[in-house]
Amino acid sequence: MASHCLPARQVPQHFRIHTDTTDFFRIEYGDVILLGGKPYLIRHNAKELRFGLEDEVKFWVKRAVDLSDGSLKIIKLVFRERFISRIGGIEFECFRSPRKEARILTRVAHNKNFMHGFSIEDEKGNLVRVLDFIQGQPLSYSVGSMECDHQTYFYQYFPLILDRFIECIEAIHFLHQQGEKHGDIRRDHILIERDSGEYRWIDFDYNYRHVENIYGYDLFGLGNILAFLVGKGDLRLPDLKKQGHPALSQLSQDDENIVFGNRIVNVRKIYPYIPQALNRVLMHFSKGANWFYEKTGQLLQDLHECKNSR
Amino acid sequence: MDNNEVLNRNILIAVDDSDNSRRAVSYVARLLGGIKGFKVTILHVIPQPEDDFFPASAEKQQWLSEYRARVDTVLEGYRQILIREGFEPTALSLRSTLRYCPSIAECILLESGEMDYGTIVVGRKGRSRSEEFLFGSVSNKIVSHARNCTVWVVE
């Protein structure tokens, strides 16, 4: 089977076959995992991008080849963790749940804006997720690496990017309507599929213990991505200071991201051609906001109005 | 208000184990202790964690029984505060209820709606604006969503 899917020099002479995936450290390159009778040939461990740091190896996430048809898969093995997360000095309890991700995979099986796959138990009852490999780059990389100036970006590329991102917000709205959170909304958790150009959410095994507003943290993530997309990157106060940016004298605390004080969300003060309506949406994520979004539907409604007025 | 209208003297104090809840209970105790006719229910909504939070149901049961024991102690402590300030023990009741709460405020209001309470009392946590943005505020939501009753927010 392996010889149909791999170049001859890459086909191992012997395979170690795993039916119990509990100890994922033991499952290495060239091993085979048997799930529901199907063999998956393990290639590399996945890595998670960490800003400014060496990528983190995720030993429980394996790239694999489905030996029955040669398709590429990502196999996520069971790894539970519970920890206190801290952003901007605010602490909250987070946990990783294979069951949550498995459930959402079923719910979004027909939604083009999510990764697709299925879950299956190994012989020890570990809930393994078998995901279709998405060929493409993270949204963060795609936007961050564009070499044009901001004005060119904003008029030539941003309208399509915004349309695609609105589809992503609609996808999250769909989740919320089902009572589910994404749990870890970040710009590197949207992959842009190479062939179709579709934006697709990945990694929904994270969850957080909410307090009053169940979707607040997801909305915060969406706001951060929106600000990143409008600004063609983070507009960090230290960078603006380093550049001696002329807008510095007009900036106040009210213009800063409500949680990350060193990021400016009042993008119009930096780039005056940003439409007022769009900037107003961003300002709901600022320290100066007098009203916060509680539901994705509210954010979507405002963004649709921005689109209609352009 | 119609002068002949009979005042509803049933009070619901919604609490957790925080200092601000203790302040809310103390406030009611000092304000109304010794005055006949008031009935107070001290309510704690146990926010049921999502099933995903626990690897197995046994862990969930253990978490719940530990939580309940802790809540019983806290509620009894609040009851004693009210008794010390002059409330009759028969005028007090304690209630803890396990609910899945996308919004704790809505759960409290639901409880309040099921009984006939004239006043809801809550403590204010004093969250920062960024915390309120990320996680919301129970007291603010109760203030904006409560109907047919008075809300006291104690700081």
> Would you identify the regions of chain B where 5 or more consecutive residues have pLDDT less than 50?
none
What is the CA–CA distance across the termini of chain A? 55 Å
Number of domains of chain B: 1
Q: Which sheet architecture does the biggest sheet of chain A show?
A: 7 strands, mixed
Find the CATH topology of chain B: Rossmann fold
Number of strands of chain B: 5
In the CATH classification, which architecture of the largest domain in chain A applies? Orthogonal Bundle
- Which structural class do the helices and strands of chain A define? alpha+beta
Strand content of chain B: 15-25%
The secondary-structure class of chain B comes to: alpha/beta
Second-tier CATH architecture of chain B = 3-Layer(aba) Sandwich
Shape of chain B: globular
What would you give as the CATH superfamily of the largest domain in chain A?
Answer: Transferase(Phosphotransferase) domain 1
Mean pLDDT of chain B: 91
Q: Which CATH class of the largest domain in chain A is shown?
A: Mainly Alpha
Description of the molecule:
The complex is a heterodimer of chains A (310) and B (155). By secondary structure, chain A is of the alpha+beta class. Chain A folds into 2 domains: 2-77 and 116-132, Roll (SH3 type barrels), CATH 2.30.30; 136-308, Transferase(Phosphotransferase), domain 1 (Orthogonal Bundle), CATH 1.10.510.10. Helix content of chain A is 30%, strand content 23%. In chain A, the strands form 3 sheets. A 7-stranded mixed beta sheet of chain A has the order 1-2-3-4-5-9-8, covered by helices on one side. In chain A, strands 6-7-13 form a 3-stranded antiparallel beta sheet. A 3-stranded antiparallel beta sheet of chain A has the order 10-11-12. In chain A, strand 6 (82-87) and strand 7 (90-96) form a beta hairpin. In chain A, helix 4 runs antiparallel to helix 5 and helix 4 (150-177) runs antiparallel to helix 8 (296-308). Chain A starts with a helix and ends with a helix. The mean pLDDT of chain A is 92. Chain B is an alpha/beta fold and 155 residues long. Chain B has a single domain (10-154), classed as HUPs (Rossmann fold, 3-Layer(aba) Sandwich). Chain B is 44% helix and 21% strand. Chain B has helices spanning 19-32, 57-84, 104-114, 129-135, 138-145, and strands at 10-14, 39-47, 92-99, 119-123, 150-154. A 5-stranded parallel beta sheet of chain B has the order 3-2-1-4-5, sandwiched between helices. In chain B, helix 1 packs parallel to helix 2 and helix 3 (104-114) packs across helix 5 (138-145). The longest helix of chain B is centred in the middle third of the chain and has 28 residues, at 57-84. Chain B is globular and about 50 Å long. The model of chain B has no long low-confidence stretch (mean pLDDT 91). Classes of the chains: A alpha+beta (310), B alpha/beta (155). The A-B interface holds A 80, 82, 87-88, 90, 92, 95, 97, 99-100, 179, 207, 209-214, 216-217, 220, 258-259, 285, 287, 289, 292, 294 and B 49-53, 55, 102-105, 128-138, 141.
